[in-house]
Amino acid sequence: MTNYKDILLDIGYSNIIDNGREFRMKPIYRDSSSNTVLSVRKDTGTFIDFSKDLRGSFADLVKMSLDLGSTEEAQKWLSGTHGLSRDIKKPKPKIEGVKILPKESLSKIIHDDTYWLGRGVSEETLKPFEGGIFKAGKMADRYVFPIFNHKKELVGVSGRYIYPLEQDSKIPKWKHIGQKKNWKYPLQINNKIIRKENKAILVESIGDMLALWEAGIHYPVVTFGLDVSVEIINYFLRIDIDKIYVSFNNDDENNMAGNLAAEKAERKLIKYFDSNQVDIQLPPKKDFGEMNKDEIRTWHANLK
């Protein structure tokens, strides 16, 4: 296997981070504040510059890094200097389509906000998220939030059961349809806000997001569970984000699930970002839904 790290060092890269199947580093062909925004695969040498959405073969990266005139010239340099074959093939991309759901299904939504109004979330907060109740089907008796991608295609729905649940009930509180790993929610609403603020708060559920929104904090991102997806990480890399707050549920009085998951998420994120860009800031109560607006605003004012 070609030792791409040695070649990268020869080109002028430094502080190369070993990240499993890839190397991470700061690009030398442009200015960047991130030490991990450039990824180079160990097996193929293919690269991705997440911030600029640039990608290509190792020869393409050599061309940019050495400011050569063409990829052909980069291939000649690799062949002559490192004995690397000029036939550098790009790997066949793994094709995995994102499932698009029919928007017609949203016509079944009944716009009744009673459930969330009872939890202290206003109609003004709810309106941009275009949610409502389903009375039948897989999302029956749930307040459902549609999830759109950047093309405004419907890629999923997430629904909160609106009736009280018995302690041993098998009905899940939240139910999702679609590929959660591809969701970046609610970027359909707050993408520009996150880019302007250059920071984000990671929360477990839409309920947490709504509580923050109600308090005037408009840059949360929902993970829909206790892990941070590759899609969310890649988005943060693309926008070269300054700060990520991990604010999962505070379960210190129960099973510590949210606390431990927050630590795991922090470890995952600092593989891609500098440690000072990631900060665990759990809510002082179990979750933001249990806090009033003043409590949330006080928490927010104390963020580092």
Topology (SSEs and partners):
Layout: H1 4-11, E1 17-19, E2 22-25, E3 38-41, E4 47-49, E5 54-56, H2 58-66, H3 71-82, H4 114-117, H5 123-126, E6 132-134, E7 142-148, E8 154-161, E9 174-178, H6 187-197, E10 199-203, H7 206-214, E11 220-222, H8 230-238, E12 243-246, H9 257-269, E13 278-280, H10 293-301
Parallel strand pairs: 10-11, 10-12, 12-13
Antiparallel strand pairs: 1-2, 2-3, 3-4, 4-5, 6-7, 7-8, 8-9
Helix pairs in contact: 2-3
What does this structure look like?
The chain has helices at residues 4-11, 58-66, 71-82, 114-117, 123-126, 187-197, 206-214, 230-238, 257-269, 293-301; strands spanning 17-19, 22-25, 38-41, 47-49, 54-56, 132-134, 142-148, 154-161, 174-178, 199-203, 220-222, 243-246, 278-280. The two termini are 45 Å apart. It folds into 3 domains: 4-82; 98-181, DNA primase, catalytic core, N-terminal domain (DNA primase DNAg catalytic core, N-terminal domain); 184-304, Dna Topoisomerase Vi A Subunit, Chain: A, domain 2 (3-Layer(aba) Sandwich), CATH 3.40.1360. The chain has 10 helices and 13 strands. Strand 4 and strand 5 (54-56) form a beta hairpin. The strands form 3 sheets. Strands 1-2-3-4-5 form a 5-stranded antiparallel beta sheet, with helices on one face. Mean pLDDT is 90; it is low at 86-95. The protein is of the alpha+beta class and 304 residues long. Helix 2 packs across helix 3.
